[in-house]
Design goal:
heterodimer, A: 438 residues, alpha/beta, abc type-2 transporter like fold, 5 strands, elongated, B: 258 residues, Rossmann fold, 10 strands, 36% helix, disordered C terminus
């Protein structure tokens, strides 16, 4: 079976390198990514800081101090002096306002330093760290960024204040508990990070998808399909060959895109971004990782596994749809809907609080082909771990692959394969199960 | 029966069965083609010639009846049938961006030939169809006649024992048509391949075919050598007159005489 599939895939690769248009399609995306990076870095460089609006930080410092030391005051002083946080507008409030402020949500960022803050820091036998509570409106990306900056200052509290005064004192004595108030902790970060697979789908999968689509429709347009079907091979191996070709293209595209992105990032870090900003980016990434609080490598494995599965879904869909299309134009029209799906999914994530939906709806959503994976990524970021529903999403995506390939297999074995077109399919009943040769 | 390369038994094909658009393409069609002969299938458009070729090459399945190709059942041994059969479909094409050699090589690989045999066969066939000088050129630069010759070469890959040619001279000019006829004759006679040709080309049928069968409305209405058919039904004319007489005999149903 593999031999025949490989012969067909090899033929497609040969044909690919004989067409300038197809080679351009394959290499265009890395170039687009490079351009986007360059433009992004340029815009970031010329964009004035004044574009950022002033962020209000409400502080309730209830720290009673301990042994003539008030770490709450130290922390507050540090916030007002650190490069990343000194520009915020600080408003002092008293402890009696805490509940009403939280209830009414009339703040952008609210920092609450409890009464026993210094006491816990100074009790070396206490296992629990001293806690600062941060509440913020996470519908504003600037607030998310500010919370990360404040969190970074917390470790500065450890290092600059506690370490100086107490020498080898445990550096994990202060921690931050942050709570987003609009959709739940990290909702905005989660929805922003959900864009990553969307970008990946657009940049990594669309060029191979188009090429696979062409490889099938061209058989019909150049009238080679019948000659192919007349050969002593299992027709399903034609599907396998086209799929294999798609997988090779996706793999190739991932490698070239990774190289391009790495070059773009390395170039930006080395030649465009100042050293101070570089360190800041590093610590921001560290903060994000710390905030998510789960194994990054575990997540990356899950994430890549999902990407592989949705890539195969997209390729299989391309094969199925292009088998149904009478020509490339018809196939392109239908396949556009597949490309729109992830965009719709991302919009849904932005406007519907999926994380708050009842479990059954979440299970249904993650079961949708392609989109389900985007929802699963969002839910994972939101939960700060990979919940069961996200694992199930991968199972669903795998099942969809089997279903789509099965349908493509049925289709190529149907005797109407040479005359089929979307127009004909839509005009007939019984479209789901493609009547087999009797 | 042993000497028959192709035999069909009450082969029936109904498209869109049970619907208003139902079409009976073959109706209890019985055919026997002897080994080594060139057999011509003649008839009007929609008579069932292409359907017959497609069923016998396992592209589509008959609604009822059965057929054997060199002893292999077309349903249960479809892969074996495709292995021993070469076919030039009516509406065939080539990979335009591939060279002549690459087109042949791809099919040779699918037919399981090793690299040495592939090289040997493609060179032999390229020479046979007279494309040596253009063998490395892209097919998109070929004329219609050159493409047709290359398609015939492609159908010969893997040394098939039976060759099906569906309208091999359709849509090509008279000079190319003559070359294609000569080529098929050369192949059939030199290589002793049983050849079944579906054609409207009466010169082809008259000069090349050992026997012809005339199909009308999915049934074989006459079968003999071209000269015998002319004698019986030609009314003093040629094979074309005989065929017109046979297919127009009952009436001029839509499509039959188009």
């Amino acid at each position: 079976m593999f031999r025949e599939a490989w012969i067909i895939a090899k033929k497609e690769i040969k044909l690919l390198f004989k067409s300038t248009r197809r080679i351009l399609l394959l290499f265009s995306m890395p170039l687009v990514i490079l351009f986007i990076f360059a433009a992004g870095v340029f815009i970031a460089g010329v964009m004035p800081d004044s574009m950022d609006s002033q962020i209000e930080v409400t502080i309730i410092n209830d720290d009673a101090g301990f042994n003539n030391q008030n770490w709450g005051d130290n922390f507050y002083a540090l916030l007002k002096s650190m490069e990343n946080t000194k520009s915020y507008e600080y408003i002092n409030e008293t402890i009696d306002k805490l509940d009403s402020l939280i209830e009414e949500g009339k703040f952008e960022i609210l920092i609450y330093i409890p009464a026993n803050f210094s006491q816990i820091i100074n009790q070396s036998n206490v296992e629990q760290p001293s806690v600062i509570f941060i509440y913020y409106d996470n519908s504003n990306a600037q607030n998310e960024e500010a919370v990360l900056n404040i969190s970074y200052t917390t470790s500065a509290v450890n290092q600059l204040v506690i370490y100086v005064d107490y020498g080898l004192i445990n550096l994990n004595r202060v921690s931050i508990t942050s709570t987003g108030t609009s959709k739940g902790a990290g909702a905005l970060i989660a929805s922003l990070l959900t864009m990553i697979p969307l970008y990946l789908i657009i940049f990594l999968v669309i060029p191979p998808l188009t090429l696979v689509l062409i490889s099938v429709t061209i058989e019909r347009e150049q009238k080679t399909l019948e000659s192919l079907l007349l050969q002593p091979i299992d027709r399903k191996n034609i599907i396998a060959g086209k799929m294999l070709y798609g997988v090779i293209l996706v793999s190739f595209n991932i490698v070239t895109n990774l190289i391009t992105v790495s070059l773009a990032v390395a170039g930006s870090l080395l030649f465009v971004i100042p050293e101070d900003d570089r360190n800041e980016i590093g610590s921001t990434i560290q903060s994000i990782i710390a905030e998510t609080g789960f194994s990054v490598w575990f997540f990356i494995t899950w994430f890549i596994l999902g990407l592989i599965l949705v890539s195969i879904i997209v390729i299989a869909t391309a094969v199925l749809f292009s088998l149904m299309a009478k020509d490339e134009r018809e196939a392109n029209m239908v396949i556009s809907s597949v490309i729109i799906l992830p965009l719709l999914g991302t919009l849904l994530i932005m406007f519907v609080p999926i994380g708050d939906l009842p479990g059954i709806f979440q299970y249904i959503l993650v079961g949708i082909p392609l989109l389900g994976y985007l929802f699963a990524v969002y839910l994972s970021f939101l939960a700060g771990e990979i919940p069961i529903v996200s694992w199930l999403s991968l199972v669903f995506q795998f099942l969809w692959i089997i279903v789509i390939i099965w349908l493509a297999g049925r289709l190529i074995e149907s005797e109407g394969i040479l005359e089929i077109s979307f127009k004909r399919i839509l005009s007939k009943k019984n479209i789901l199960f493609f009547r087999r040769k009797k | 029966m042993e000497s028959l390369a192709v035999s069909t038994n009450n082969l029936t094909k109904i498209y869109n069965q049970g619907k208003a658009s139902e079409v009976v393409a073959l109706n209890n069609f019985n055919l026997g083609v002897k080994k080594g002969e060139i057999y011509g299938l003649l008839g009007g458009n929609g008579a069932g010639k292409t359907t017959t070729v497609r069923i016998l090459t396992t592209m589509i399945r008959a609604t009822s009846g059965n057929a054997k190709v060199l002893g292999y059942d077309i349903i249960t041994n479809s892969r074996e049938v495709r292995q021993i059969v070469g076919c030039l479909p009516q509406d065939a094409g080539l990979y335009e961006e591939f060279s002549a050699i690459e087109n042949l090589d791809f099919i040779a690989q699918l037919r399981g030939l090793d690299s040495e045999k592939r090289k040997e066969q493609r060179e032999e066939l390229i020479q046979l169809v007279g494309l040596e000088k253009r063998k490395n050129d892209r097919v998109e630069t070929f004329s219609g006649g050159m493409k047709r010759r290359l398609m015939i070469a492609r159908s010969m890959i893997g040394n098939p024992e039976i060759l099906f040619l569906d309208e091999p001279t359709a849509g090509i000019d008279v000079l190319v048509s003559r070359k294609v006829r000569e080529l098929i004759k050369q192949l059939a006679i030199n290589k002793k391949i049983t050849t079944i040709v579906s054609t409207h080309d009466m010169i082809f049928a008259e000069r090349l075919c050992d026997r012809v069968g005339i199909i009308r409305k999915g049934k074989l209405v006459a079968e003999d050598t071209p000269s015998a058919i002319v004698e019986k039904y030609g009314d003093g004319g040629d094979l074309e007159d005989a065929v017109v007489h046979l297919i127009g005999w009952v009436g001029d149903e839509e499509g039959e005489l188009a």
